[in-house]
Specification:
This protein has 317 residues and is α+β, with helices and mostly antiparallel strands. It folds into 3 domains: 146 residues, no CATH class; 37 residues, no CATH class; 109 residues. It contains 10 helices and 11 strands. The strands form 3 sheets. A 5-stranded antiparallel sheet has the order 1-5-4-2-3. Strands 7-6-8 form a 3-stranded antiparallel sheet, with no helix packed on it. A hairpin with a 2-residue loop joins strand 4 and strand 5. Helix 4 crosses helix 5. The longest helix is centred in the middle third of the chain and has 26 residues. The radius of gyration is 23 Å and the shape is elongated. The two termini are 29 Å apart.
Length: 317
Amino acid sequence: MPEQSRFENVDLFASLEAIMKQNTGFYQSDLEIDKEIIAKAAASPHREDKTLLWFCRPSGTHCFRERDVFLKDTAPHNTWRFYMEQTSDRVLAYAIELTGKERGKIKGNLYELDYSRHYERVKEKELPADTVKLFYERGERVQKAGRYFDGTPDPQLGKFERFEAVPNDPDALQSLLQEERRSREQLPPGDFKAHIAALRDGLIETEARRIVWEMKRHDTPNSPNKTHFMVELSPAFMQLAATKDTDRLFSMLPYKTLSFSKIEGRHGTYALIDKRENRDREIRKPRPSIRAQLKTDKAKTAPKKAAAKNKNHDLEV
């Protein structure tokens, strides 16, 4: 498994959009909600608002404060766990540390997360939060978690503003968050453009592995005329894929009789192989993208230079 990286002082909105386009075929408008959450956190004076967890999946994105993800039974905690426990979605996850604003752009550090491993940490280290704090324009009050509230104004405290779960042991939460931060800081710096290229490669490889698995799963030919095995290409993948991506997908699939085709009376595009084809095969070795090949060739021929003291991993947009 590739090592995770950190990307420092990036334009967060541009960077998250670039990542999303390597995985999220549907509901890309979710990112606009995430941008509002990030902008609000950037304007907040509270330190705990400055670290967020974000992920994207084939159908949407989510963004939460890190503290809330580790609090048991909160909506952020349950959502973060759901896509590991209940789906087989490819999930790209990151920690965000907000650092400031430059020329109107919200800047910060991005830390790549291994979603499956991070899920295990969240499950293992979850902390109980049996109360909820309700914030109003002229004060706040506390009530038991799970008790209904609808955000209506309070006669004494005025307009309802927000709520948050309160950990039973605040010191334990702070210790946990510090541990998470120290762990992230050990990640090596990465090249963001190379990271995006690798995510595109991963998108294609994930689709190839899914198709191979689906081909093996069927006991009998499943095409309308029963002469072929067939698997629909993922609609989310097709939303994101350019012609060169589907060409690379085709080259990774290990079948001699393979074709991509429409099926009369059905939506979508299908991978089809003859019913006599050997389906007991794995994907072919992924072919490096042109960008990756050019980068490798350049690295081999370029003279060595002294490392720069500062590196800006901003995404050019």
